[in-house]
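sry for the spam today, last one i promise. struct tokens for design, 248 residues
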């Protein structure tokens, strides 16, 4: 009975004609060419540029580099923390020395008071040895951290490029398989219509007709599974790029 079933499948294909087999193959080939997703997606280089522009990870490294670049400037100017300038202002009644006292006359003890404003300005410098000897080391450390952040960004960019290329090709593969599975389902549907007529006319029995329906159901399940894979691959690429991908 199983051999009879496969013979019937072969006859069914012959019954539809060699032209049908060729047209189905041409349909798949032409359909893949006309529905090539790569023609509707932005170019790969454009996707990579968009991913880099929207990557939170790369933005983190940019901010980290900016921070350490600022630390270099701060380390170079750290010595300014040891210089103090002070200024003061006072207004009121002050006791002042007489001219004799200013001239150095020891016998004069007279003070006189007057209402006036007074300004004071002063400067001081202190140079701790740690600031002197550690300055160059602090500058070098800040430069090393800035350079490390820059290299980390370059490596992250390389990783991002590799991920985009993989997801891009996974999407194209998923789309092609999705289209092929859709074609297989359509082919089985045509066979099912023919088989239903042959079953009613007694050409095939119920077991063969049921088996073909099971094959159709399996093809539909494979189609739905591949459809889900295509959508997942598409959303994964959108997530990495960081924006909604517009089709051309």
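last one done:
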């Amino acid at each position: 009975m199983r051999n009879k079933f496969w013979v019937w499948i072969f006859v069914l294909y012959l019954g539809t004609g060699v032209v049908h087999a060729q047209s189905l193959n041409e349909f798949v080939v032409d359909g893949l060419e006309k529905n090539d997703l790569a023609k509707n997606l932005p170019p790969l280089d454009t996707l990579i540029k968009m991913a880099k522009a929207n990557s939170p990870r790369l933005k983190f490294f940019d901010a980290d580099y900016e921070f350490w670049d600022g630390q270099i400037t701060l380390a170079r100017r750290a010595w300014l923390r040891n210089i103090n300038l002070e200024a003061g202002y006072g207004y009121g009644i002050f006791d002042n020395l007489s001219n004799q006292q200013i001239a150095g006359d020891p016998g004069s003890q007279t003070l006189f008071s007057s209402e006036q404003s007074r300004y004071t300005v002063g400067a001081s410098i202190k140079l701790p040895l740690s600031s002197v000897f550690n300055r160059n080391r602090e500058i070098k450390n800040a430069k090393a951290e800035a350079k490390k952040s820059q290299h980390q960004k370059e490596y992250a960019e390389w990783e991002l490029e590799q991920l985009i290329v993989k997801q891009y090709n996974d999407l194209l593969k998923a789309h092609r398989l999705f289209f092929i599975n859709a074609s297989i389902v359509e082919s089985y549907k045509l066979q099912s219509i023919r088989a239903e007529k042959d079953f009613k006319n007694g050409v095939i029995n119920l077991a063969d007709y049921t088996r073909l329906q099971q094959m159709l159901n399996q093809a539909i399940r494979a189609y739905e599974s591949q459809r889900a894979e295509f959508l997942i691959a598409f959303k994964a690429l959108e997530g990495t790029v960081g924006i909604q991908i517009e089709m051309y």
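The chain has eight helices and two strands. ok im logging off now
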